[in-house]
Amino acid sequence: MSINIKSPEVEIRESRLGSSNGFVGTAKELCDKSRKNRFCERKRSFSQCLECSSSRALSMLVMIQDAAVINHAPLGCSADFAEFNFTNRAEQIRRKIPVKNVNLLSTNLQEKDMVYGGGAKLESTIRDAYVRFSPKAIFVTASCASGIIGDDVSGITDALEEELGIPVVYVSCEGFKSKIWATGFDSAFHAIVRKIVKPPIKKKKDLINVINFWGSDIFTDLFGKIGLRPNYIVPFSKIEQLKKISEAAATVQVCSTLGTYLAAALEQEYGVPEVKSPPPYGLKGTDEFLRELGRLTGKESRVEIVIKQERERIAEELQELREELRGKKVYVSAGAAHGHSLLALLRDLEMEVAGAGIFHHDPCFDNGDERSDALKHVVDNYGDVRSFSVCNKQVFELVNVLSRLRPDLLVVRHGGLAAWGVNLGIPTLLVGDEQFGIGYQGILNYGNKIIDVLETKEFVENIAAHSELPYTSWWMEQGPYAFLGREQVE
Ligand code: SF4
């Protein structure tokens, strides 16, 4: 267990969890190797693109409504700023809260700063953010550049915290430190637990922390049925709210890849129990999730009633969807635990999972509890997935795999991937809202959406007929994993 909130640095996923991003085989094979602690990474000799930890840390912090964030980096690391602002404003409209821009600055490190250091620039940017935004806290995200030149970001933020009288927090998310971009989530949460969260004053028996991205509100209704209420964190929360997350009765997460660190840290530091179950996708996953939540909050009997009622409510429509979707081949390209959850959901619709390319793999989570292992849940309850790879959005692999498997449907989680399915004439479903598939209703949501998407077949085939892939026959005629090296047992 490597959660040490006294250290300003977060331990990266590779060393903390044994995470990796190169594997090809079957889902069961990966599960078995993970259980036996056999690190099974295959390193790529060629890589097209990646996200980075810094970007993921920013994605969690910039939408805290009354904080400011400073990216201590060259301007090139700010490519996501416009997207963050768009998401922030769009979600503010949806949530009916005042619409404003993100409080986000870059120190714009330049060549001279690389030689003489960027400390003075960071200090003046922190003071600038304090005056311009009157924030309740300031987060400073590090970058490759600030890490390489050795700026003492932690020392500077500590000094400015004393001067300004608000938390000024170093976020250790230098991009080069980890190949697993989800480490950036851990960096952001480490900063929050280390400097923002306070010990509980009064425990709230009905309040459940929900670690999520910025999806739709489905938990108010779902938890309401069992007398509980959600406390959505971290995007769209406020600093005062984050200070008190130690007072919740339990913590759940929509995706263990996202929330593993924060949920475990809250349990370790403040005794807030984490719901240790697969995420609530698909029939069995949702049953297990609700039962564990019920056990931790003393609502077992109420949960059983809700499970029975909800299963009965969706039974007829689910049957109709299964009749229509049974045996249709689907390929999934998504982040780790969320991608695994989608496999369960699609199997509940009786679709045939032709394969999956999952962005990275965590052999375990910070709680060390197998019940949270969404992939094991899929393999144990729905069987193996034969064409299973761990692929950090390497489009050249995806296009090659899809052209061989020719699924009826491609399901992707990240926008940039959707175009490739369409270019190949494969109806493609992009679901940005991870809450769309949660719970019993989520299965119906997906089923109905998939039926709509399958209707686009002729349309996407038309697009494919007029599209030219950038890959030559040299690449398309060889195996998709030609650049994946041999397995590295470490
Ligand atoms: S922090 Fe590093 S990896 Fe991330 S965008 Fe900047 S230079 Fe690239």
Strand order of the largest sheet: 1-12-11-10-13-14
Total tally of structural domains: 3
- What is the global morphology? globular
Largest sheet: 6 strands, mixed
Distance between the termini: 19 Å
- Name the hetero compounds present: iron/sulfur cluster
* CATH top level label of the largest domain: Alpha Beta
Overall mean pLDDT: 95
**CATH architectural name of the largest domain:** 3-Layer(aba) Sandwich
Radius of gyration: 23 Å
CATH fold naming of the largest domain? Rossmann fold
Keywords for this structure?
six-stranded mixed β-sheet; Rossmann fold; single chain; binds iron/sulfur cluster; Nitrogenase molybdenum-iron protein alpha chain; 3 domains; four-stranded parallel β-sheet; alpha/beta; 490 residues; NifE-like; 47% helix
Short description:
This protein is α/β, with parallel strands linked by helices. It has helices spanning 13-17, 27-35, 53-61, 81-95, 111-116, 119-133, 144-149, 153-164, 183-195, 219-224, 239-243, 256-270, 282-297, 300-325, 336-348, 374-382, 395-405, 415-423, 439-454, 457-465, 473-476, and strands spanning 22-25, 41-44, 67-71, 104-106, 137-141, 168-171, 207-211, 229-233, 250-253, 329-334, 352-358, 388-391, 409-412, 428-430, 484-488. The strands form 4 sheets. It has a 6-stranded mixed sheet, sandwiched between helices.
